[in-house]
Write a sequence for this structure.
């Protein structure tokens, strides 16, 4: 009688789960999935602008940013708990449909949140353009995002990589369910927003707060600017002079320079011009930049901030230049005239001497804030995972995820190595031990009563562990 009752419960649970239109029977997460966070959140909200940015009145510091002021208001919404949640989300592969990718996959702190590839590997295809560095984007240009500046609001923009099937590919209903089932998100959402409800708006808001907090005010440039560049070498000083005469019209450090000064600020279309332009690269037949959304702006691309530029190679929207030397060679000798370049570049380029080129590169390197790269508040809170990943089985995924009845485990196994599967129940009992030389293994629903399982996959000297939850 008792046994019959239990069976009935199991069957009715199964029947209930199977009849639901979208079923998330299996929730797959890596085992080291608890973020390591400080007891008191890091300070994200107290952002102090250096004086030289706010009060750039001194004519000798002619770097363009006195034009129309900087966009400091974009910091107003940052809270320490909101940005902390954003940090966890930014690094969490659980957001991605196959749990293989996070924002950090293409935006790496060691590269000032860019990637060292011309284009990034998306989930199914290479990305169209070079991954962009994320430092200082909230204040240098708070209203224009992507290389073609097609997005004007960071909160809306963030949803694109989040849900793009070639990037994070998050299905927001699944994500809310998955995150809600972890031991830490409900608390993080409560600390950030007052209650544990997980919504797309809140995810976007937290990510925006985290990214907006990324500033690089500890560069040598900033330290020296406070001191009228007295500590610059002669070479760096020459680079600074060359930069202020030739480059700062466009790379205006966040100031609404040139056009902002000339035209009244209430003509909205002109607002984009301090931030977008053409720099004499050969026309790209594959990509017309802002021409994608406004034919009159064909061949115009976002002018990115040059802060931390030494760390973000390769350069330009298509990653065509590998080094800053190549970039400076372009501006010196390879500028192609077109409808936009007149008045900004002499025909062919600035024709720098070799020592001027070296000086320009030396100056660009003073824009690097090294502390940014190791700053804990922007670092991966899932630290453990990266250590283990070096020895983990490549491209291990369980799918479909969620799934209705069976779970297929797939992974790279090009040389048909012997692979062993151990499935443990939550109380540590081995419920399955199987070997295969294939690159996939199908877990039959036979063993999956509701509960948590740990799947250990062993191949050669590699080992990965995954958590499987059956609801
Ligand atoms: C597969 C790689 C990839 C992933 C994953 C990815 N990005 Fe990006 N990101 C890019 C590329 C490429 C661009 C430039 C896109 C363009 O201009 O067409 C970009 C641009 C951006 C920009 C615009 C920066 C600027 O200066 O305009 C922001 C902000 C951004 N990504 C944030 C995120 C966030 C947040 C996530 C996670 C939710 C994320 N990205 C995930 C590759 C990626
Ligand atoms: C007329 C405007 C203009 C001028 C002047 C200009 N740039 Fe640029 N710069 C741009 C634009 C636009 C881009 C992005 C182009 C693209 O990707 O198609 C860019 C990109 C760059 C990049 C690569 C940024 C990245 O994230 O990949 C560097 C470095 C750079 N410029 C340095 C300089 C230097 C140094 C000078 C002066 C010698 C200079 N620029 C002068 C408009 C300009």
């Amino acid at each position: 009688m008792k046994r019959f009752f239990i069976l009935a419960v199991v069957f009715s649970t199964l029947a209930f789960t199977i009849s639901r239109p979208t079923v998330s029977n299996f929730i797959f997460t890596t085992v080291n999935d608890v973020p390591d966070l400080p007891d008191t959140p890091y300070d994200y909200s107290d952002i102090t602008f250096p004086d030289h940015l706010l009060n750039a009145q001194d004519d000798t510091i002619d770097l363009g940013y006195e034009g129309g002021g900087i966009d400091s208001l974009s910091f107003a919404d940052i809270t320490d708990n909101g940005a902390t949640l954003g940090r966890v989300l930014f690094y969490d592969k659980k957001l991605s449909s196959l749990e293989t990718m996070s924002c950090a996959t293409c935006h790496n702190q060691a590269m000032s949140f860019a990637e060292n590839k011309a284009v990034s590997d998306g989930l199914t295809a290479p990305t169209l353009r070079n991954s962009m560095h994320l430092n200082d984007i909230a204040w240098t240009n708070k209203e224009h995002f992507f290389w073609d500046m097609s997005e004007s609001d960071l909160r809306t923009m963030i949803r694109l990589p989040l849900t793009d099937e070639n990037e994070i590919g998050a299905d927001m209903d699944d994500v809310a369910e998955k995150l809600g089932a972890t031991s830490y998100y409900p608390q993080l959402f409560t600390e950030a927003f007052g209650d544990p409800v997980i919504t797309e708006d809140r995810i976007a808001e937290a990510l925006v707060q985290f990214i907006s907090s990324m500033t690089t005010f500890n560069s040598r440039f900033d330290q020296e600017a406070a001191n009228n560049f007295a500590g610059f070498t002669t070479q760096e000083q020459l680079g600074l002079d060359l930069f202020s005469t030739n480059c700062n019209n466009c790379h205006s450090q966040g100031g609404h320079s040139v056009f902002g000064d000339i035209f009244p600020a209430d003509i909205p279309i002109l607002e984009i011009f301090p931030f977008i332009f053409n720099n004499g690269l050969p026309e790209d037949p594959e990509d017309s930049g802002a021409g994608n959304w406004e034919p009159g702006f064909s061949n115009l691309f976002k002018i990115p901030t040059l802060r931390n530029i030494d760390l973000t190679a390769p350069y330009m929207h298509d990653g065509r230049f590998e080094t800053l030397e190549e970039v400076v060679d372009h501006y010196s000798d390879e500028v192609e005239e077109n409808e936009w370049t007149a008045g900004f570049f002499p025909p062919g380029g600035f024709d720098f001497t070799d020592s001027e080129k070296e000086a320009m590169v030396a100056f660009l390197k003073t824009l690097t804030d090294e502390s940014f790269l190791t700053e804990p508040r922007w670092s991966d809170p899932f630290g453990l995972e990266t250590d283990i990943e070096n020895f983990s089985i490549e491209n291990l995924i369980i799918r479909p995820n969620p799934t209705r009845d069976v779970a297929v485990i797939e992974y790279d196994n090009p040389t048909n190595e012997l692979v062993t599967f151990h499935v443990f129940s939550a109380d540590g009992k081995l419920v399955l031990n199987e070997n295969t030389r294939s690159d996939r293994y199908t877990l039959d629903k036979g063993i999956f009563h509701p509960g948590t399982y740990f799947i250990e996959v062993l191949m050669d000297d590699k080992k990965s562990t995954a958590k499987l939850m059956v609801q």
About this structure: Residues 199 and 421 are 36 Å apart (CA to CA). The pocket of heme C (ligand 1) is lined by residues 101, 103, 105-107, 120, 122, 127-129, 131-132, 134, 137, 145-147, 158, 161-162, 167-168, 207, 211, 302, 304 (CB under 6 Å). The mean pLDDT is 80. The two ends are 25 Å apart (CA to CA).
